Amino acid sequence: MSELIQTSKVAGLTKVNDFVVKFANVNGSGSASANGMFAKAVFRMGIPISPHNIFPSNIQGLPTWFEVRVNENGYLGRREGVDLIVAMNEQTIGKDIASVVPGGYVLYDSSKVLANELLRDDVSYLPIPLKDICLQEFEKPAQRQLFKNIVYIGALSAFLDIDFKVLTELVSEQFRGKEKLILPNIHALELGYQYASDNFNCPLSLRLEKSDKNKGKILMDGNTATGLGSVYGGATVAAWYPLTPSTSVVDSFAKYCKRLRIDAGTGKKKYSIVQAEDELAAIGIAIGAGWNGARAFTATSGPGISLMQEFLGLAYFSEVPIVVFNVQRVGPSTGMPTRSQQGDLLCCAYASHGDTKHVLLFPANPSECFDYAASSFDIADRIQSPVIVMSDLELGMNEQICEPLNWNDESRYDRGKVLNAEQLDEIEKYGRYLDSDGDGITYRTYPGTHPHKGSYFTRGSSHDAYAAYTEDGSVYAEVMDRLTLKMKTALNYLPEPEFSKPTSNKLGLVFIGTTISAINEVLDNLAKQGIALDTMRIRAFPFHDSVTEFFDAHELNYVIEQNRDAQLKSLLKIECNIHEEKMHSILSYDGALITAQHIEKSIMGSL
Amino acid sequence: MQTNDIGLTRRDYEGTLTTLCGGCGHDSISAAIIQAAAEMSLEPHRVAKISGIGCSSKIPSYFLSKAHGFNSVHGRMPSVATGANIANKELYYVGVSGDGDSASIGLGQFCHIVRRRINMLYIVANNGTYGLTKGQLSATADLGSRTKSGEESQFDNIDMATLAIELGASFVARSFSGDKKQLIPLLQAGLSHKGFAFIDVISPCVTFNNTDFSTHGYKNTWENYVALSEIDFVPMREEITTSYGAGKEKEITLHDGSAIHLHKTSNDYDPSDKENALHHINEYKKQGKIATGLLYINQSSSDLHELQETVDRPLNSLGDQELCPGSKALNDINNTFR
């Protein structure tokens, strides 16, 4: 064994299962799968983790980061500060080293000498000659490049005490069917592990210890769950235009359809996916299919939502069921296309011109992405109107630990009020928009159902109860009032808010979606300071009465959201008439997931 | 009243009363569709009518009231028709659009529905003007053509028929709302054709674009209208007995077993030859003439369902049993994320 490398004047951080590791890479260099392997290995050791990709809108050459928070307590929101950086990008290495907290670690490629100005005396350096090792061990240029990533994972395995067997298992699983690749990858892992063990005191005082916190859980990204939920929910038509961060919703739908939706007898497909020429066509195809009785969806993000406005108004007014998955990103305009935000609340809630209102669902984790995707088709059919499922990049594209996906085999699709030929025969005169049940929801028919009954003309222009064109103002107003009633009825089919166990607290925390990742940590930390809060996670729009009741029951409510203009707060004011004094906004809109520290600081500052 | 093979009268194929101007070409198109469908004994409720916005897009109200209709968004009929067709491949789809709807605001969607080979009949009622907004020039107005207000088109026109041929439509025709004898068999052939059938129908706007200086008016169309062939439609039930002399006539069998007989007026015109068809149309255009009739046909093209290999049953008829993979499959998937 060679002499151990001494690189630090300070004692390193001593932390077990509670730290942030950040990988700084160049995009297109093959780092993503290696970094993913690291996250999965920690997950399999039973330790809670939350990986976040921070990536550019680019194919090759720009900086990209992969940030993993490890936390035994299950605090899985983002945490500011980095405890260990894997600094693989020369363009950003200065900033990357500067981001490390005092006492932290810098793993870098020592094939090249580190410039003097990059040396800090309050962090420990972990130099590994990655390039030299790969030059010596591998022949093909592509392998020499790619395996640098695997070698640093091997080194981390020694530094952080990752179970090496878990890593080799992961490699074997990843390359199942491409067996030739397994041995070289394991060899690369061993090279890193060996070099670190030979040259440093391993493990570091910053390290992992096996735990049992992930029992039964899965590690999945939201878009995968959404695509799979659409398969389970009975979607047969997907029309879309590629747009980050929504693209992987349709990728997932396609992947699972190929596996689960092929007719056994004929080998033919029980689904259709159309990559449209733009988002207008994508939603138009979904509306055509929904009108004709198929369950149809489109997946998009903010720029696509902007283009779909006119069609959303048509679907609302002519009462056609469709599902839109909006994986939100930072706007306006092209904004920051690969960063996350909850910035489309207002433009989705009232999408299109004229008086409109749309059902929104706010999933907060991959399990909910699955459940809401599946149930959104029932809701859309039931209320005969668009349902927009509001995810975001953070949830859609990053893996999260969540409960396994669950399906009740007893459940049946709710196709809503649809009349077949026999039912039409029993009706004297069919009216497409005749509210015979008094709940605002009327009966529809699919084209081709009956030779002489039940046909109607669907139009975005004003129509009466029998779908006939009219410019009679009172008839128009009646239809608009019925649509208001229909949205009230819709509440029966939407998920109620999730409340914490009610206490006698006077402070409330109100939030949606991915903000949930910071909440446990906020509550625990504030509790230590004697501050207790009740929480309400809103899961659907329009709001249930219980939303208003929560505000009424608390003197001050912090409304936490990830946009500049407090859009959730605005919706609450408009829809529930909640007084401004009852609400205090906590906002975050830098494109990164909101942190517990930011929320705590805002609350402390307001008291 | 006379009944057809399925016991329906012409009245069973009618729609609501027209609200278009007296003498509007579009009403002749509605009448031609009614006659075409009645003669073919189409079941009205097995047809879905889809349109965009504009005078043209009102047409679906005026025929086949027993069929479902969808008057959608300006320029977006193609996407709605695409979705409807994907949901249920068993219906007939008739899309009706106009030159504003398909050549301007909806040109992109038009191009892509042609590429996507949706099995439908797509009709453009082409009058070279925006009638509902009182007579602005449209993108199909020929260079130099003038509207009623005297506005002259300074730009080259978009020819929807040649565009459709170039983009891969498998049935392309042009006709004139005033020529029922030609339009009806073309509509019947288009409905029987498997794949994307397109008919550009010159349909004069009597109120805003029927001057002597308009190339889309009745006068110019009658004077410069050239039929590349005369066409007869023979439904599949009828035994084909007439014999034709070689060279002058051509019989084309369509997907559903019906046939069209073409009586060619030009010896070297071949509607199955794309280049040849484009050449003829352009040659006539240079002389200020409008080539009409069946311009191009390819009976062997596949539609989107064949390309995508969708199941034989309509997608909209599949239920839980066929679509939901169940909890066991989901548990297996969960295991791949552990």
The gross shape of chain A turns out to be globular
Q: How many E strands of chain B?
A: 13
Strand arrangement, largest sheet of chain B? 2-1-3-4-8-7-13-9
Oligomer: heterodimer
CATH evolutionary superfamily of chain B? Thiamin diphosphate (ThDP)-binding fold, Pyr/PP domains
List segments of chain A where confidence is low: pLDDT < 50 over at least 5 consecutive residues.
none
Radius of gyration of chain B: 21 Å
Walkthrough of the structure:
The complex is a heterodimer of chains A (607) and B (338). Chain A is of the alpha/beta class and 607 residues long. Chain A has four domains: 15-207, Pyruvate-ferredoxin oxidoreductase, PFOR, domain III (Pyruvate-ferredoxin Oxidoreductase, domain 3), CATH 3.40.920; 220-402, 3-Layer(aba) Sandwich (Rossmann fold); 421-493, no CATH class; 498-606, Rossmann fold (3-Layer(aba) Sandwich), CATH 3.40.50. Chain A is 37% helix and 19% strand. Chain A contains 20 helices and 23 strands. In chain A, the strands form five sheets. In chain A, strands 11-10-12-13-15-14-21 form a seven-stranded mixed beta sheet, sandwiched between helices. Chain A has a six-stranded mixed beta sheet with strand order 3-4-2-5-6-7. In chain A, helix 1 (31-44) runs parallel beside helix 4 (141-160) and helix 3 (130-137) packs across helix 4. The model of chain A has no long low-confidence stretch (mean pLDDT 96). Chain B has one domain (10-234, 266-308): Rossmann fold. In chain B, strand 7 (171-176), helix 6 (180-192) and strand 8 form a beta-alpha-beta unit. Chain B is of the alpha/beta class. Chain B has an eight-stranded mixed beta sheet with strand order 2-1-3-4-8-7-13-9, with helices on both faces. A three-stranded antiparallel beta sheet of chain B has the order 10-12-11. A two-stranded antiparallel sheet of chain B has the order 5-6. Classes of the chains: A alpha/beta (607), B alpha/beta (338). At the A-B interface, strand 9, helix 7, strand 11, helix 9 and helix 11 of A face strand 2, helix 2, helix 4, helix 9 and helix 10 of B.
